[in-house]
């Protein structure tokens, strides 16, 4: 309650509630959510291309991903394909990338 009612009035204003929910939901991304987002950007392919990242993400985010994503090694890959699965799990400490 102290997070949404810092002055101890025992009432929660709408703005306090919105601020609390914004904080709570913005910090709750999981590797599965990030992975699902990349899968959508990649049109359900198991890899993503640099041009797809540059088209779909803000420039800084695209370049961050491109610089850190390993190459995709699957049999259905194409030259320059990036492994968004390995990247997503590495972001959350679930791999050694």
UniProtKB/TrEMBL annotation:
Record keyword Chloroplast present: no
Keywords, sorted A to Z: Actin-binding, Repeat
Gene3D superfamilies per record: EF-hand
The EF-hand domain, residue ranges: 1-27
Superkingdom of source: Eukaryota
Keyword flag Repeat: yes
SUPFAM superfamilies per record: EF-hand (SSF47473)
InterPro entries named among the record's database cross-references: EF-hand-dom_pair (IPR011992), EF-hand_Ca_insen (IPR014837), EF_hand_dom (IPR002048)
Any GO MF annotation of the entry: actin binding
Protein name: Alpha-actinin-2-like
Record organism: Salmo trutta (Brown trout)
Gene from which this protein is expressed: LOC115190105
